[in-house]
Amino acid sequence: MVVIKTQEEIEKMRRAGKLAAELLAYIGPFVKEGVSTQYLNDLCEEFTQKHGAISAPLNYHGFPKSICTSINNVVCHGIPSETEILKSGDIVNVDITLIVDGYHGDTSYTFQIGGVDEQIQKLVYRTEKAMYRGIAAIKPGKYLYEVGKAIEKYIDKFNYSIVRAYGGHGIGKKFHEDPHVLHHYSPENRIRLQEGMIFTVEPMINLGKSFAVETSEVDGWTVTTTDGSVSAQFEHTVLVTAEGAEILTKV
User: Fold this and answer.
1) Domain for residue 1, yes or no?
2) Where are the beta strands (DSSP E) in 58-212?
3) pLDDT, tens digit only, all 251 positions of the chain
């Protein structure tokens, strides 16, 4: 069941989204060549505690870290590590979710490290643009599938593939709520949008033609492309308003 947020809840979600956005802006300058993903994790946890918030990923169903760091062919849920050092040519998605006063703010950004291949630069740019195309399609009274339809229409021309195994999600008091947000067109997302709905739009786009992914049997979390192709992702938490959508995770 999709939860329609009250005005009080929306204000709390705005605060959570704002702090998550501020954390993502804070960590950006540290995401560079020679840095370990564990170092980024520790900085984020320090920021989170300093601001009286809670890291939602930490211990969520056993996830061991405070943020997700997904490099190159890792689609999502990458686990920060001391031995994972960023190098020139990498791209890394840093996914942050904070709990502020009981409510969640969820956002992510794909950073480019040093000299990134032009083909991959284009993938990153187009993935971010695809996210904003999806957000622009949000209007009360329309169906949720318009989000995936807008993303798919834009992405299809580049012969990329849209990951189907994972999508956006409702968010509020819970990290993951209804609805499940598909980033490709499907009648399964025939859910009427209403003011007060809050969910994430977070397309994961693969450079290869296959949208197939697999989860590590070693850690049970790290999701990679099955063909080894690079994958990019961007994410915002959005509120359905009378006019369209308000992005809650913008600085």
Assistant:
1) no
2) 68-71, 74-76, 91-100, 103-112, 161-162, 168-170, 177-181, 198-201, 204-206
3) 999 999 999 999 999 999 999 999 999 999 999 999 999 999 999 999 999 999 999 999 999 999 999 999 999 999 999 999 999 999 999 999 999 999 999 999 999 999 999 999 999 999 999 999 999 999 999 999 999 999 999 999 999 999 999 999 999 999 999 999 999 999 999 999 999 999 999 999 999 899 999 999 999 999 999 999 999 999 999 999 999 999 999 98
- C-alpha 180/C-alpha 192 separation (Å) is 13
Alpha carbons 171 and 48: distance in angstroms, whole number: 19
Contact 68, 77 (CB under 8 A): yes
CA distance 105 to 248: 8
Within-domain flag for 154: yes
Q: Enter the pTM of the model.
A: 0.97
**Domain presence at residue 144:** yes
Q: Is 95 annotated as a binding residue?
A: yes
Write out the residue range of the structural domain in which residue 231 sits: 7-247
What's the CATH number where 66 sits? 3.90.230.10
Is 176 part of any known ligand binding site? Answer: yes
- For residue 104, say whether it is annotated as part of any ligand binding site: no
Helix (H) or strand (E) holding 232: strand 231-233
Does 169 carry a binding-site annotation? yes
Pairing of strands 91-100, 168-170: unpaired
Q: Is 183 annotated as a binding residue?
A: no
